[in-house]
## 1
Amino acid sequence: MENFGFLFAAFGLIWAVLFVYVLMLVHRQQQTKAEITALREELKQARKIA
Amino acid sequence: MKGKTDLLLAWTAGVLMIASLYLVFLFVPTEATMGAVQRIFYFHVPVAWVSFLAMGIVFIGSIGYLWQRDLKWDTLAHAAAETGLVFTTLMLVTGSIWAKPIWGAWWVWEPRLTTALVLWLIYIAYLLVRGYASQESRGARFAAVVGIIGFLDVPIVALAITLWRTQHPSPVIFTGGLAPSMLMTLMVCLTAFTVFYVLLLRIGITQRNSRDELKRIKAEIED
């Protein structure tokens, strides 16, 4: 009884979940960084006007 | 320096993961009784180890936060918990996939599995307590208490197979129950997942620091 289906299901799941998690982390970080840059720019402009 | 360390960790984890796949699928012999499905063990055990390690870091971070009230400890614990939840989920699911062909059932309410499920629920509780607290500092404080109490479950999960009669396989790593090639494969997999976890933890910490910076800038704009 080799059960290759179960073996590949387990390995596939591990890689899929970790891949999605890493993508999610990278996406979240990029979003935060973009927001920080935009707000810093906004702050700089506001200081100039003031 | 920080980026270089992350890059080094990413490369090390990548090389070790490829080595793990080679060892698991092409090098290590097939176990006589369980057949190919036993190979799940080489990733199930490292994933379980990382989920224990993550709870250990949550414990240290929680104690550090309650003691010094320094947010860096809370950031460490929070990042460790989020990644820990991912690995604990993988531990439960891969264990379940292994159990179906071997035990004939996806899930059995026996001590090891039940205490592992409790660990998963502790991670959920830790993250929910933070999310639903009215103030961030209060959430961090409550979560730290959950993190400290929750860590008590780790030795219970680890020792469940020796303390009680369970259906879960008995310990084989430190008892000489593994052939040298199997032990070597497991060690490489354990190292690969540990390095990968450290990388994810560092990314998580960086992300929380960026989020804090974002909050500071927003507060500055509002003022």
Note: The helical segments of chain A are 4-49.
## 2
Amino acid sequence: MRRPLRRIHFLIWLALAPLTLAAALIALSLAPDTPFSELPPGVEEVD
Amino acid sequence: MGHQYQAVQWNKNKVVYDLYMIISLVVFIGLFMVIGLKTYPSGHTAEPVGLMIRALGSAAFSMLTIVLMIGPLARLSPRFNPFLYNRRHLGVTTFLVSFLHFVLALMWYHAAGPLNPFVSLFVSNPLYDSIPGFPFEILGLAALIVLFLMAATSHDFWLNNLSAPVWKALHMLIYPAYAILILHITLGALYTEKSIVYAVLTLGAFGLVAMLHLTAGFREWRTDSGLRHLKKKGWVEIGSPLDIPEKRAVIAPLPGGERVAVFRYDGKIAAITNVCRHQNGPLGEGRVIDSCIVCPWHGWQYSPEDGISPPPFTEKVATYNVRIENGVILIDPKANKPGARVEPAIIDPVSIDEELAS
């Protein structure tokens, strides 16, 4: 009997790793008021 | 092994392992609560329930990360096989901790309003078309459903009934579930954190798991690419019997994608499939103990000469015809029926004497 899922397993991680990391980083960059986001609205006005 | 149904097959190793697991879990949650309450921002009232929800979520995520690291680590080094042997209890406990996290969050954030908590979970935040406002709870629920499926079908009863390939395919759902969980944490907990440390820890854990799986997968790919050339009459050359340590095996890829485990024991050579009937474990990484090949993952046993498990068990794996010509092992790549008896090849006693003398 073969281990039929061996290559599928590898390919799943090959696709999943960059997609998940990219999605998480994009989501973090859109987060309001975190170290990843741009300056919150209003800060420039104060300056 | 599949002889008689038992709810949990306890042994001393599993009890000790579970004890360590429960103690670690209690210490983790305890430390999380104590540190969380002590470092709560001044001017705010600490929310023990909110902290407990986070403690349970963090514990479940950490446990799932460990669960997902064990498989590739065991593929990369047999030193991690004992963790693989005990992985199932860790997986089921991960589901239970996740479920507590879910119930507590549902009750704390959705039970106070006029709506049913389950209805509230789906409708209280309608920003399904927004990334930063997306209802991250739904992602957590999706991952929890997968964890439930894993836990509910974790017993060998389901493995036997669904067959190993179907069961394995079902359990591979845990990988997308882990990715969904990363997004659940990102849009939930990480959105309220001011420190970058939590994001680095979360994404770092995911990166580590992904790297381990890809490294192990790449190594498997390389093994398959080392396909032996077919020799005369279609037999496959494996190498010298003396290159195989006593009571151990070499694993060789065969035409068609199969792998054969070629064992040396008691001056003989025998070959069976490399795939264990239980969970597709690599039999060729096991050892011959008491005249039986023992799978390194969960200890299932097979006779090297007919591939049959010792009584009272009834599992069978495929055997391969083997012979030795001019000091070289040759394997017929056409597998015999599971349980078919084959004569092992006898290693030239003179060559064994010379090996011992050197």
Note: Chain B has two domains: 12-224, 236-357.
## 3
Amino acid sequence: MITLTIKSKGPSSPQAIEWAKKLLESKKQTQAEMKEFAKTEEFQEIIKRLRAKQHAR
Amino acid sequence: MQDKFSVKDFYEFQYQEGKDKSYFFETNNGYFYQIKFKESSYIFSDLISVRPNSYEFIIDFLNHSNSSKIVFDSLIPNTIAAIYKDFFDRFGRSTVVYIIDSSDSRESARKRKFDRWVEMFKGDEYFKIDAEIFDNEQNRIFSSLIIKIDNPNFNEIIKYFGSLSSKYSK
């Protein structure tokens, strides 16, 4: 992995702030959806499949 | 380019196809992780050729063991790195962005954790760019972008992502 770091010393542009806030909001919303998904039958099926794969290893 | 991914020991994970690409794994300590590469064309709304392959990386976990104790588990970073590798093997032209919440002042710890997850990628096949964004209240928001080095839009993506940082950047 090649990594480049951009350090900031001052305020970001309004465009950058809007971009970051949109991403943070989307992340929060998606994590809430993930928690809801974890209550579903589909999620339980995924757990079953995973455990079956683990035991077969 | 030679694949130098070297992680061998990781939890079994399950991939689920959909508009968003989801992964699941369970740890020995009873934690169940969900990882989502969420299709998010707005991230690069100005770059038409990049938009369809843009994803947000989102992770969340549940604990079925009823224990609040967090135990260090070295297999977790290995597994997340393996999932990243699997995702890029499937969708090599993707651009993945990770954003770190700073609302509880724990952003630096989260950033270190994310860096540990992805440092498992050895060699020069992948490129990560880290940037800081300061909001109007001077909260620091970390963001990272990961792409494969042979992405056909590499230069455009790096230039655009870099432009989102401050004019005072170094």
Note: Chain A touches chain B through 39 residues (CB under 8 Å).
